[in-house]
């Protein structure tokens, strides 16, 4: 039985706050939302998701803003399920009544979350699920969406950069249903604390070999490119409750053992067109930056997004959350990212564990072979986990 204590608000659970996350959403631009700015200056939490969304079709409403919450689970998505209207009926038919009735918006992303929930034995359980259960549910979600799309004759590739947490563990994917195209970019950085060294400039500080926090982002958040490792295309990333970072290649029909053979450049333009297509089945998500802050037992700190967007959302865990526009030091944690080799001369190594196989170590280029994905609006999304 998984007995890890929840981390949404404090290191010790608070019965008054419960075991579900607090979520703030708004349809106003993040840079012009005074409530967001005020909350970000005062709220602190060891686990934070933040997301900026731009929609070119469908309704602009709070119900379509990422992330979504169900019980103690929280989920957001950067990408699209290609030609979702062709598989929407199949998706709906597969959902249990309780999960179907929980869907309030009309985006393919929220439906993907509903499919994810239906893969869990008891999505309403109050105890943490454990990273293994979350990982398997995410993989089954991708498998089912791919199967429905293939059966419907969908030719376009789906972008499925998912992020989900139960308040203790975090699971993210960088995925595209193609053997030749690059997925939307995704990076991570780890260290002792994330701090501001001058106004508007942040860096990851590595005081020792211990890793007290992890940041996962769709693009590097600092100018120190050497601090960021590229998550390869079609890879699942896990941040465990012990602050271990694990990378698993997603081995399916779209798995390509040679990442360098995936094309970039022109494909990014194709992705921008794909993201900008009008659809008849509802809102279209244009999510171009994700960030996950994972500071362990410390507090998560982040800058307020400055991108002009039609809708934005920030999820946090407490009225005390400390997401400030200025930095706050993350307190030390005894946990470490065992799967990362941060010794001098080998900073660009990480443990890659193929599904069902022993971990192996492979070198990573901090910038990798991927490039930032072009988008019609230039907007980006950010995901934080700690």
Automatic annotation (TrEMBL):
Compositionally biased spans, kind Polar residues: 340-352, 377-386
PROSITE patterns tied to this protein: GATASE_TYPE_2
Ranges annotated as biased composition (Low complexity): 327-339
GO molecular function, one term: omega peptidase activity
Segments forming domain Glutamine amidotransferase type-2: 1-208
CDD domains attached to this UniProt entry: YafJ
Protein name listed in UniProt: Glutamine amidotransferase type-2 domain-containing protein
């Amino acid at each position: 039985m998984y007995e890890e204590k929840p981390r949404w608000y404090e290191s010790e659970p608070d019965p008054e706050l419960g075991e579900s996350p607090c979520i703030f959403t708004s349809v106003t631009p993040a840079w012009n939302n005074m409530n967001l700015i005020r909350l970000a200056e005062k709220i602190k939490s060891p686990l934070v998701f933040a997301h900026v969304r731009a929609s070119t079709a469908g309704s602009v409403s709070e119900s379509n803003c990422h992330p979504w919450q169900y019980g103690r689970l929280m989920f957001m998505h950067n990408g699209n399920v290609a030609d979702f209207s062709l598989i929407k009926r199949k998706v709906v038919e597969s959902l249990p009544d309780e999960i179907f009735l929980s869907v309030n918006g009309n985006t393919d992303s929220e439906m993907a979350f509903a499919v994810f929930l239906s893969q869990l034995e008891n999505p309403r359980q109050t105890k943490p699920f454990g990273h293994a259960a979350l990982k398997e549910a995410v993989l089954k979600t991708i498998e089912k969406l791919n199967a429905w799309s293939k059966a419907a004759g969908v030719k376009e590739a789906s972008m499925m950069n998912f992020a989900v947490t139960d308040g203790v563990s975090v699971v993210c994917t960088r995925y595209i249903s193609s053997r030749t195209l690059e997925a939307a970019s995704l990076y991570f950085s780890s260290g002792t604390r994330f701090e501001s060294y001058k106004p508007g400039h942040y860096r990851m500080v590595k005081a020792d070999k211990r890793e007290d926090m992890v940041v996962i982002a769709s693009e590097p958040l600092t100018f120190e490119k050497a601090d960021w490792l590229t998550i390869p295309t079609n890879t699942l990333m896990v941040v465990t409750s012990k602050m271990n970072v694990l990378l698993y290649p997603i081995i399916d029909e779209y798995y390509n053992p040679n990442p360098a053979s995936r094309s970039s450049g022109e494909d990014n333009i194709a992705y921008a067109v794909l993201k900008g297509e009008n659809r008849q089945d509802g809102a279209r998500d244009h999510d171009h930056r994700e960030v996950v802050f994972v500071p362990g037992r410390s507090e998560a700190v982040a800058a307020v997004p400055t991108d002009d967007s039609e809708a934005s959302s920030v999820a946090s865990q407490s009225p005390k959350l400390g997401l400030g526009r200025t930095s706050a030091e993350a307190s030390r944690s005894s946990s470490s990212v065992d799967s990362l080799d941060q010794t001098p001369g080998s900073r660009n190594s990480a443990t890659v564990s193929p599904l069902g196989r022993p971990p192996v170590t492979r070198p990573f280029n901090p910038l990798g072979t991927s490039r930032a994905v072009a988008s019609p609006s230039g907007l980006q999304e950010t995901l934080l986990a700690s």
